[in-house]
Structure formats: C-alpha cells, structure tokens
C-alpha cells in the first residue's frame, strides 16, 4: 500500500515566523513530489514541486527532499495570515497517479 | 482563462437520481484525473485518462460511477442512483504528462438529499 503521511495539525505559527510542514512517503519509487495549498471549500492550488534531493526555493517557499529518508518538507518564511490553509503533500509514482496525504492545517496567528 | 474548468460548481440532487459532471482540462494536457474529496481528507483518486484512454479506475469505486473522455478533450463523470454517501467535492485535474504537476479545477460540490 503506497502511502503519504502528514501530521493533520493544526500547526499554529506566529505571523512573521517560519512554518515547517513535513511529509513522509512509503514508495521508494516515487520520483516527483508536490505541495498544494487548499483553502476551506476551495480546490487545491499548486505551490511547489520538487524532483531532486536537496532544496528548491521559490519566493517565501522552500521545498526540501530527502529520498534516503523518504521525507519532503515545505518551509514558509515570513508567514502571513493569508498562508493559513491546509497544505497537501503528494507523491508521483513511476506508474500513474499521485498519492496524496490528508493534509496539515496551518494557522498563522497575527 | 486557460485553467481547468468544471461544471456545474454545485449540484443538489435527490437520492436515486443520476448526475453528470463535466471537466475541461488545460489544452494540450494529456492526462486528466478525477478525484473525490470529503472534509478533512486529501483527494481520493477515482480514475484517470491518458488522452482518450481510461488507464486506471480505483478499486474502491462502485459500478455506479463511470467516466469518459471522448476524443481526449473534455471528460464527464456520471454517478448513477446517487446515495447520500456520494456527497462530496468532485475534483478534476490535468497534467501535461506522467509525473508532471497537476492543476485542479474549482470542483463540483455534490449534495445528495
């Protein structure tokens, strides 16, 4: 059973601080990893994707991938109240579909 | 707007009725996915298409669900004899190819009463 695990939260972070979201995956054949942000009642919105070990930065967001340990993380710097949402991690396998985590609810406190 | 488009946005139906949803993917995206999502859960895979071919269907999916993608463009998802447990957000996503990032439509929220 291929799985992606995330802490459901909520994760509460003060405004301006760094929010750190983590995700582990079970399928060593996973080759691509995605972070989506989902506001309540809305559809998921792609934030970042990463394919290679190491860090990938895009503005306030940094994705980190460690294939040996099978984890992916998302760092959000200078957290804003508008970052409050559920963050979904997904792993793309060598086959066909994305395997999704259940999401981590992030709350940024002003 | 060249994003993924879903129609309708909301659907309320009586138990036992059939419903059909439509998804228009981003043009030139070969892959199209259907997901179902309930509160507090991640998207649950239903089925996906590579062009017009339906390559995978979730084993959890009852025979009441069927999807098509004629000509490899838009797709429809039909639910026959709806049940209250079918109430959920139905999401469509498309991607350029295998392993590429997927982009979601705004979803169709189904309520079965």
Topology:
The complex is a heterodimer of chains A (110) and B (113).
Chain A: E1 4-5, E2 11-14, E3 19-25, E4 32-38, E5 45-50, E6 54-58, E7 61-66, E8 71-76, E9 85-92, E10 98-100, E11 104-109
Chain B: E1 5-7, E2 10-13, E3 19-24, E4 31-37, E5 44-50, E6 53-57, E7 65-68, E8 75-79, E9 88-95, E10 102-104, E11 108-112
Parallel strand pairs in B: 2-11
Antiparallel strand pairs in B: 1-3, 3-8, 4-5, 4-9, 5-6, 7-8, 9-10, 9-11
In short:
The complex is a heterodimer of chains A (110) and B (113). Chain A is mostly beta strands and 110 residues long. Chain A is built from no helices and 11 strands.
Percent helix of chain B, as a range, is: under 10%
Largest interface between protein chains, with number of residues from each side: A-B, 22 and 22 residues
Largest sheet of chain A: 6 strands, mixed
Low-confidence segments of chain A, ≥5 residues, pLDDT <50?
none
Rounded to an integer in angstroms, the radius of gyration calculated over CA atoms of chain B is 13 Å
Number of helices of chain B: 0
Question: Helix/strand-derived class of chain B?
Answer: mainly beta
Distance between the termini of chain B: 33 Å
Please mark out the parts of chain B with pLDDT under 50 across 5 or more consecutive residues, or reply none. none
**Beginning-to-end CA distance, first to last residue of chain A:** 40 Å
Radius of gyration of chain A: 13 Å
N-to-C SSE series of chain A? EEEEEEEEEEE
Averaged pLDDT of chain B? 92
Mean pLDDT of chain A: 93
Structural summary, described in words:
The complex is a heterodimer of chains A (110) and B (113). Chain A is mainly beta and 110 residues long. Chain A has strands at residues 4-5, 11-14, 19-25, 32-38, 45-50, 54-58, 61-66, 71-76, 85-92, 98-100, 104-109. In chain A, strands 2, 4, 5, 9, 10 and 11 form a 6-stranded mixed beta sheet that branches. Chain B has 113 residues and is an all-beta fold. Chain B is globular, with a radius of gyration of 13 Å. Chain A binds chain B through residues 4, 8, 31-32, 34, 36, 42-46, 49, 88, 90, 92, 96-98, 100-103, and chain B through 33, 40-45, 48, 55-56, 89, 91, 98-107.
């Amino acid at each position: 059973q291929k799985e992606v695990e995330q802490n459901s939260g909520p994760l509460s972070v003060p405004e301006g601080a760094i929010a750190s979201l983590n995700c582990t995956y079970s399928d060593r054949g996973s080759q691509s990893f995605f972070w989506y942000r989902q506001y309540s009642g809305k559809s998921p919105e792609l934030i970042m994707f990463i394919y290679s070990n190491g860090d990938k930065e895009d503005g306030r967001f940094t994705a980190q991938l460690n294939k040996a340990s099978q984890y992916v993380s998302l760092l959000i710097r200078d957290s804003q109240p508008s970052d409050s949402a559920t963050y979904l991690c997904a792993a793309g396998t060598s086959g066909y579909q994305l395997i999704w985590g259940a999401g981590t609810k992030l709350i940024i406190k002003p | 707007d060249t994003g993924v488009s879903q129609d309708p946005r909301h659907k309320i139906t009586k138990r036992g009725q059939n419903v059909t949803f439509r998804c228009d993917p981003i043009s030139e995206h070969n892959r199209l996915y259907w997901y179902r999502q309930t509160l507090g859960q991640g998207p649950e895979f239903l089925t996906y298409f590579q062009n017009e071919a339906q390559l995978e269907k979730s084993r959890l999916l009852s025979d009441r669900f069927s999807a098509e993608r004629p000509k490899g463009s838009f797709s429809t998802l039909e639910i026959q004899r709806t049940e209250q447990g079918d109430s959920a957000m139905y999401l469509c996503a498309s991607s350029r190819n295998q392993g590429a990032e997927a982009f979601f439509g705004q979803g169709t929220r189904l309520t079965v009463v």
